[in-house]
Amino acid sequence: MTISAAGGMIVAKGRTNRQGGRTMARKGIAGFRRSARADGRNVFFFWDDPSRLPADYKSNIKAMQALHPDWSVQLADDGIIAGLLARDHPEISEVYGDIRVPACRSDIARLAMLAAYGGWYLDADMSCREPLDSFGTDRPIVFRRDDTAGMKARFRTMNGILYMPPGHPLPHRMLAAVAAHIQDRRHLHDVLAFAGPKLLSDMVQETGVDDCEILSVKTHLRGRDPMFREIRGASSFSWRIQQCFGILPVAEPDWEVFPPQLRPEFVPIIKTFVAQFGLQAWLPELALRRPGYMRVEGFAELVRACGLQAYEQPVIGGRQASTTGG
After folding, report:
1. Which long-range contacts (CB under 8 A, 24 or more apart) does 6-10 make?
2. Cβ partners under 8 Å of residue 264, min gap 6
């Protein structure tokens, strides 16, 4: 199902709404293409399955349309992006459906939309205080992470807010890099580098995009009365644990990238993720490599359900590991 924002309402595929005196229908990729503007006055959002879009995110998209009555504001789903990729980037389209991590598909989705039409991409949890018209539409706008000392010391950007004018080569170059990662099977446990903000940071630096306007995250997102504001959700950082199992199907997880400590909110994410992709068999090995995870409520039950009955005294590196050890 495709959902778009029009006239302050969420409009589902095949239904109609009135905007500016004319009837607007959303009919999959064809309707998405017709609604996209050629002048860069687009605001794109993405959610893999809009039927599960949180209510506050729906409200945010409605508010964005009300703030931009003369712009095209659209919410794309996996089906829309698969159609764009099949037309413009078939080498990515071939594996898009195999990408396990929704955040990674979202990274690719924003690049596909911006490469095809130009405009703004905002994460669904990102709201703005004023119309985006004030930024103009003539050059790329990238936001640099300068909100922490560590980020400020190196050049790092975010990709949750991003503007590309129509026809600009940067999103095309990034999609070419993603295609190379797929071909070479690189960064398959690293969402940030595969198609995310680290790739954007490196590409801006390496290609020397002179016409980019680099703006401050500290000012525009973290400052007093900022232009943008985040609506945090439980799924915001689910990719951090999902990526460890592999963005695409892999021989085995990258055990080294699993965090030393397991956040309690990651347990249901792991449960859903391994069930969806049939990865339960890896949980006993994960428990052996990260015994501290067994102290986190719910994880031990997941492991025991996979058949690790004798976990109480596993042997790791020639010694017995305690179930209360880290």
Report:
1. 6/65, 6/73, 7/65, 7/69, 8/62, 8/63, 8/65, 8/66, 9/62, 9/65, 10/58, 10/61, 10/62, 10/75
2. 296, 297, 298
Q: Whole-prediction pTM value?
A: 0.86
Task: Summarize the confidence of residues 263-280 as an average pLDDT.
Answer: 96
pLDDT tens column, 133-158: 999 999 999 999 998 777 777 889 99
90's CB contacts (< 8 A; 6+ apart) are none
Q: What is the pLDDT of residue 150?
A: 77
Nearest CA to 218 out of 208, 209, 227 is that of 227
CB atoms within 10 A of CB 169: 13
Which residue ranges form the domains of the chain, and what is each CATH number?
3-230 (3.90.550), 258-320 (no CATH)
163-216 per-position pLDDT tens digit:
999 999 999 999 999 999 999 999 999 999 999 999 999 999 887 777 899 999
Number of residues written out for the chain = 326
Both tokens of residue 326? Answer: 């880290």
What residues have CB less than 8 Å from 193, skipping those under 6 apart?
Answer: 187, 199
- 3-state DSSP call for residue 148? coil
